[in-house]
Amino acid sequence: MTDQQDRDKEKGITQAVTELSGVKLNHVPGEVYENNSANYLLLGAIIESVSNQSFSVFMDKYIFSPLGMNDTTADYERAIDKGFVPGFHSWFGKPVKGGGLYDQSGAPYGYMSSSSSDLAKFIKFMLYGGDLLTEQSLKHLQTPPENDRRYGLGWHFPRSGDKYPYHTGATPEYKSEVFFIPEKDLGAVLLMNKYHELEAVSYLSIMEGIRSIMNGQSPKLAEMKVSTQWITLGVALLMVIISILSLIRLRRKTMINKTLWVSTGLISVIFAVGLIPLFTYSMGISWRTVGLFLPDIEFLIQCLIAILAVHGLLTFLFIAMKLKNQYLNNG
C-alpha cells in the first residue's frame, strides 16, 4: 500500500487509509511502539479530518513556515518548483536514473522533500525548542522510551552507547537520516538521491562517521559491496552454460532415459515457477518491494527464471521429438 504512483493528489491519503480497512493489527493498541508507515498514514488522515485541510497545507502552515523551512514541502508540485532533484537507483553500485516515483499519499510516512539547510533549522528546533512545543513536550521527545525500548514518538534510539534520537528513511530513489544529541548540542542530516537496500549499511556508516568526527575520532566507512549482485549474475551465467550443455547432450542422444530427462525438465520448470515465491518468503518482502529497492536483483532473478523456463520447455520439446523419432524408427 506504500510507494504507489497512481494515487489522487487531493484524496491520496484517504485512498490509502481506506485500503487498511480489515487489516489485522500486529499488536494490541498501546502494547508496543512500532515504526510502521501505515500508522503515519492514519495520522495524516486524522490531521486532514480534524483540520479540514490537506496534509500538505497543514504542514506548511503549522510546521514548516513557523520554523522558516521555506524549501520544505509535502506536495509534489511544490517540490518540483523548489528544485526537487531527480532520484537514482543503484545497479551493481552504479547510479541509474530512476523513474521519478512519487506517492501522492506518502507525505505522512516519507514523501516530503526538504534541503539540508531546512533540516538544520529543524534540528536546531529539536535541540532548543521554540513556540511550537512546550519545554515539557520537547523533553518528552528527547527522552528514550522506558523499559529499554528503542522507538517512540517518531524517533529511534541506539541499542547501546549514547541514547540520542535519530531517524532514517528511504524511498526507492532517495535516502535520508537525521540525528541530534541534546547533551552535546550537536546534530546532523544526510540527504541522498540514490538508494539500494543492499547498500544501506554503507549509507548508515556515513552518519556513524560523522558522529565519530564529532567525538574527535577517525571515521570508519563501510565498503559498499555488490558481491550479492555479482554472485547472482554468476549463478545466472552458470545456469546458461549448464542448460546449453544439457540440451546439446540431449539432442545428440539417439536413445534417452525418458524418466531422467523428464525429471530434469520438470525440475527446471518447478524452480522457474517457484523462484519468486521462495525468494520473497525467505526475505520477508513482496516482489514489488524487490523491484523498487533491489532493481538489479529483480532483473537477475527474472533472468534466472527465463533460463530455467526455457531449459525446461526445450527439454520437453527435445524429449517429444526423440520419442517421436524412436516411434517412427520402430514402426
What would you note in describing this structure?
- The structure is a single chain.
- With 331 residues, the chain is mainly α.
- The protein folds into two domains: 12-214, DD-peptidase/beta-lactamase superfamily (Beta-lactamase), CATH 3.40.710; 227-330.
- It has helices spanning 12-18, 37-51, 55-64, 76-81, 116-128, 135-142, 200-214, 227-252, 258-283, 287-293, 295-330; strands at 88-91, 94-97, 151-152, 155-156, 166-171, 174-181, 186-192.
- The protein has a three-stranded antiparallel β-sheet with strand order 5-6-7, sandwiched between helices. Strands 1-2 form a two-stranded antiparallel sheet.
- A hairpin with a 2-residue loop joins strand 1 and strand 2.
- Helix 8 runs parallel beside helix 11, helix 9 runs antiparallel to helix 11 and helix 10 (287-293) packs across helix 11.
- The longest helix is centred in the C-terminal third of the chain and has 36 residues, at 295-330.
- The chain is elongated, with a radius of gyration of 26 Å.
- The N and C termini lie far apart (61 Å).
- The mean pLDDT is 89.
Helix/strand-derived category reads mainly alpha
Catalogue the unreliable spans.
none
Mean pLDDT: 89
Q: In this structure, how is the largest beta sheet organized?
A: 3 strands, antiparallel
Q: For the largest sheet, list the strands in their spatial order.
A: 5-6-7
The number of domains is: 2
CATH topology of the largest domain: Beta-lactamase
- How many runs of DSSP E, i.e. beta strands? 7
The CATH homologous superfamily of the largest domain is called DD-peptidase/beta-lactamase superfamily
The separation of the N and C termini measures 61 Å
Helix content: 40-55%
Secondary-structure element pattern, one letter each: HHHHEEHHEEEEEHHHHH
CATH class of the largest domain: Alpha Beta
Shape: elongated
For the record, the CATH architecture of the largest domain stands as 3-Layer(aba) Sandwich
Rg is 26 Å
Please tally the helical runs, counting DSSP H or I stretches of 4 or more residues: 11
